């Protein structure tokens, strides 16, 4: 049982969180009792015997939000994620959790000003002519409006005091929870709870150094500038330190404000499509994407364009994952389920022992009912249940390198669905996917890839001439006649490819 004990504070923290949910009647609230099976109704009724006064306050979502806010950053981020899925948890529940995105209680401005001076190593007046009270507060930090000495308006993000210790405690509890689930719930093991927890922990740790966020913001702004779908503010590098980040001011309305998308000047279908396309362009074309795209981190500027902020969590994909993602989406867009199945087997997402035709058949059962349907016509609850069942039948396990991608895809789809319930996800995705396929899988690019592979083969076969005299090159390298011939052919092919593509 040693691996289930975790750190000294992890177990009490988990028990305390569960007890807080029970006391608030937020674990299995009375409002959903009629929807539960008989055994769950009995369990829910038993838990309500321990409910406290807060169980009589408001709706389930309000009670859950209150408990999550008190539990710390990881719990708050869970609430932010749940708030994007009104189609699964209900509109009222999602709306009640929405306050966790950017409307938490701020810490005093004086404390923030001291932290800015300490972190930047200069008086506040040395950089800012004005430093206002917080305009938004989230789980890890809060944001202040300020003005630089040159007159530019900026947004200054400052980490909460003592947040590092709270995040460390949350990570400890999350790791213990993953171990408990893996030990006690065999069915959940294919979801790799510990690997999932490790991925989230790594992302949270990086989020506590705002210098990394500044670099991510700058990189993503450059990537976004190549497409018309989304943009990001510039970084003011003089105002960047480990606990402070200064960005150019975003003039617009937060997407979390219902009035922002209800205005007559807002093109909701275009906005929702741009969100889908902007995310896919980041992931597939550049291999780097904003991995926390909930409404609180998205604004609409005066021109009706999406502006992303808060780059604390940045996801990355290698060339292989980018290609698999594009080919899977392209296969679904063309209803080519055999191709989608083949990609899953090539990528190792499905163990080799399974039947490809049977997996393609299962994918058809998922894809056909939703193809060409609007977001409002697709039950995400039912779809996710079906996907979970299929992944279980084919022994598919969670891939740690795809955790942030999958989590962001679910969030983005939820936000886009809220913006435009009539959105056709496949139609929105098609231009970006088609562009990637046409560019990366074209004959010219395939020839270029072969040329690069040939050069790599040659480099491995032949040693560095600088370290071996030409007269003994072949003898010392240990090449036999066949290997040497292969090297010559590889070199010839590489040079030919380079000449053709010059």
Feature tags:
10% strand; alpha+beta; 10 strands; disordered C terminus; 502 residues; four-stranded mixed beta sheet; four-stranded antiparallel beta sheet; 55% helix
Describe this structure in words.
It is built from 22 helices and ten strands. Among the domains are: 99 residues, no CATH class; 190 residues, no CATH class; 58 residues, no CATH class. The protein is α+β, with helices and mostly antiparallel strands and 502 residues long. 55% of the residues lie in helices and 10% in strands. It has a four-stranded antiparallel sheet with strand order 1-2-3-5. The C terminus is likely disordered.
Helix content: 55-70%
Q: Biggest sheet, strands in spatial order? A: 1-2-3-5
User: Total number of helical segments?
Assistant: 22
Radius of gyration: 26 Å
Total count of strands: 10
For the termini, the CA-CA separation is 62 Å
Task: Briefly summarize what is shown.
This protein has 502 residues and is α+β, with helices and mostly antiparallel strands. 55% of the residues lie in helices and 10% in strands.
Outline the fold blueprint.
Blueprint lengths: L1 H4 L4 H14 L14 H10 L12 H12 L1 H10 L3 H4 L1 H7 L11 H12 L7 E10 L3 E8 L4 E7 L3 H22 L8 H15 L2 H15 L5 E2 L12 E5 L3 E3 L3 H5 L5 H19 L1 E3 L7 E4 L4 E3 L5 E3 L2 H15 L3 H11 L8 H12 L12 H14 L9 H17 L5 H16 L2 H19 L11 H5 L3 H20 L2
Parallel strand pairs: 4-9
Antiparallel strand pairs: 1-2, 2-3, 3-5, 6-8, 7-10, 8-9
């Amino acid at each position: 049982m040693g691996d289930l004990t975790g750190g000294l504070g992890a177990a009490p923290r988990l028990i305390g969180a569960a007890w807080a949910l029970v006391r608030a009647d937020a674990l299995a609230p009375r409002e959903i009792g009629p929807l539960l099976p008989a055994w769950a109704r009995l369990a829910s009724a038993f838990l309500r015997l321990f409910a406290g006064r807060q169980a009589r306050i408001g709706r389930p979502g309000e009670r859950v939000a209150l408990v999550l806010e008190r539990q710390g950053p990881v719990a708050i981020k869970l609430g932010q994620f749940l708030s994007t899925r009104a189609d699964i948890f209900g509109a009222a529940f999602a709306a009640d959790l929405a306050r966790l995105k950017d409307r938490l209680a701020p810490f005093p401005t004086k404390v923030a000003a001291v932290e800015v001076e300490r972190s930047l190593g200069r008086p506040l007046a040395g950089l800012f002519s004005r430093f206002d009270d917080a305009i938004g507060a989230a789980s890890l930090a809060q944001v202040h409006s300020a003005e630089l000495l040159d007159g530019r308006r900026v947004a200054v993000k400052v980490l909460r005091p003592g947040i590092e210790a709270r995040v460390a405690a949350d990570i400890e509890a999350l790791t213990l929870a993953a171990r408990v689930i893996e030990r006690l719930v065999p069915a959940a093991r294919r979801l790799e709870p510990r690997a999932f927890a490790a991925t989230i922990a790594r992302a949270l740790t990086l989020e506590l150094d705002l210098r990394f966020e500044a670099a991510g913001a700058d990189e993503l702004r450059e990537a976004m500038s190549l497409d018309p779908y989304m943009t990001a503010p510039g970084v003011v590098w003089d105002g960047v330190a480990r606990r402070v980040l200064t960005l150019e001011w975003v003039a617009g309305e937060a997407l979390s404000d219902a009035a922002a998308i209800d205005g007559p000047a807002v093109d909701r279908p275009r906005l929702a499509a741009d969100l889908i396309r902007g995310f896919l362009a980041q992931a597939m074309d550049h291999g780097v994407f904003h991995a926390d795209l909930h409404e609180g981190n998205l604004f609409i500027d005066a021109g009706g364009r999406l502006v992303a902020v808060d780059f604390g969590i940045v996801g990355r994909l290698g060339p292989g994952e980018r290609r698999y993602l594009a080919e899977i989406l392209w296969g679904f867009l063309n209803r080519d389920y055999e191709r989608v199945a083949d990609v899953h087997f090539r990528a190792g997402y499905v163990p080799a022992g399974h039947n490809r035709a049977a997996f393609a058949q299962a994918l058809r059962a998922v894809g056909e009912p939703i193809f060409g349907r609007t977001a409002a016509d697709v039950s995400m609850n039912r779809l996710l249940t079906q996907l979970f069942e299929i992944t279980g039948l084919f022994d598919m396990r969670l891939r740690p390198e795809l955790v942030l991608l999958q989590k962001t895809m679910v969030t983005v789809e939820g936000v886009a669905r809220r913006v435009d319930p009539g959105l056709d996800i496949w139609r929105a995705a098609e231009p970006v996917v088609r562009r990637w396929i046409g560019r990366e899988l074209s004959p010219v690019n395939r020839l270029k890839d072969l040329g690069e592979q040939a050069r790599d083969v040659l480099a491995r076969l032949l040693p560095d001439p600088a370290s071996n005299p030409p007269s003994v090159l072949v003898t010392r390298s240990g090449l036999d006649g066949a290997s040497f011939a292969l090297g010559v052919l590889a070199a010839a092919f590489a040079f030919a490819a380079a000449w053709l593509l010059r």
